[in-house]
Design a protein that fits this description.
Layout lengths: L1 H13 L3 H14 L4 H10 L6 H14 L4 H18 L3 H14 L4 H13 L3 H5 L5 H16 L5 H16 L4 H16 L4 H18 L2 H14 L2 H28 L1
Helix pairs in contact: 1-2, 2-3, 4-5, 5-6, 6-7, 9-10, 10-11, 10-12, 11-12, 11-13, 12-13, 13-14
Length: 260
């Protein structure tokens, strides 16, 4: 029976029917647990049929039970880390695999990237900045990586990540305009949630960067958010500040018009 299953499984896979091939390879592995060809085939095919949890579990078993050389282990850890992170959203499991991968394959781009994502998830931004080179090039790489990971997210992790990138942009790159852009993105993400304290924090930082950049539009966005989240007494102060910002912007516009 095993020989027949081996042949039928291989033929079914070759006929480009992954779902049927998976069923046959699973039957083969059930008849002969640890069957090498069945395990290798399921490693290839589980992702094609969206069986990502089964793939991660199988990779775990293979890494634990099989005699593999370092290159084979590294390949399986890489697949495990990617699947756990991108398909299951399980950063804890992904980071564990990524750390094992980094030991076997130092400098692995995938291993390092997943390790950094996990650090972001834990809010370890100072430690994360330390993984990048000192100086302008390292700061630019850090900001770019943070912005890419936060892109499209609207949770607290994205807010704190973008504010960290804004701080590095202001402090190390001396670019308050881009810092304001990043802080505005953070405020937008914070405003979609229900954490008033985090929204107020993002708004105050945006105000600081916008003032340095002399960006009255962002100043008005920031002060509007502060007014919505502040206590009554502070709210009155910021309402007066909003009026002053508008008057200053009008004066600048009038001066430019007259100068033209």
């Amino acid at each position: 029976q095993i020989t027949i299953l081996e042949q039928l499984s291989a033929l079914t896979e070759a006929s480009d029917n992954p779902a049927a091939a998976v069923a046959l390879y699973e039957e083969l592995e059930a008849c002969k647990p640890g069957h090498p060809a069945a395990r290798r085939a399921l490693t290839r095919l589980y992702g094609d049929v969206d069986r990502h949890q089964e793939l991660v579990d199988l990779l775990d078993r293979r890494l634990t039970e099989e005699e593999l050389d370092d290159a084979e282990k590294a390949d399986l850890y890489e697949r495990l880390a990617l699947t756990a992170a991108e398909r299951l959203g399980d950063l804890k499991r992904a980071e564990s695999a990524a750390n094992a991968l980094r030991k076997l394959r130092p400098g692995s781009q995938i291993g390092n990237e997943i390790h950094r994502r996990a650090m972001i998830g834990r809010g370890e931004f100072e430690e994360l900045r330390g993984l990048y080179p000192d100086g302008r090039a390292g700061a630019e790489e850090y900001v770019s990586a943070i912005a890419a990971i936060a892109d499209g997210r609207e949770d607290s992790v994205a807010v704190v990540a973008l504010l960290s990138a804004a701080a590095v942009t202001e402090d190390e790159l001396a670019d308050p305009s881009t810092a304001a852009d990043l802080a505005a993105m953070a405020l937008g993400a914070a405003s979609s949630g229900d954490d008033a304290e985090l929204t107020g924090h993002a708004a105050r930082l945006l105000m600081s960067y916008a003032e340095s950049a002399e960006n009255s539009d962002f100043q008005l966005v920031a002060v509007g958010a502060i007014i919505e989240t502040a206590e009554a007494e502070e709210r009155l102060m910021y309402m007066a500040q909003r009026v002053a910002i508008c008057e200053d912007a009008q004066a600048i516009a009038m001066s430019s018009y007259q100068g033209g």
